[in-house]
Specification:
Length: about 130
Amino acid sequence: MKIKLRVHFYDTDTMGVVHHSNYIRWFETGRVEFLRAIGIDLNEMMNDGIVFPIVEIGAKYLNPAKFDDELEMETTAAALTKAKMEFNYKIRKVGEEKILVEGFSRNVFTDAETGKITRLPDKYFSKLQAVG
């Protein structure tokens, strides 16, 4: 799934490039939009007592993005199981092939009350299976 992003002035650092932390925020945006597109409402999941903390995340910064750049981020599922979800991300300037940043994230499904890893109910897992 692809989404577009615009680099705002507040996304940049004193060197005039996107601050590295913003890419992690954008990965989250990609992940949420991916899940929304396949019919998973994260508010509903949380209301059902399932939370999904990130247990691992990483990024490789290859080329800088700057103020007012229009970016395209591609989010792909790497692993979608009853216990975890993993995504890969690639960010480019719109219309260009050169990758600016690539990264990944891993979440585990956790019981909100106990904090223990839990198995995802079929009402959500079936939607993950349809794309995984």
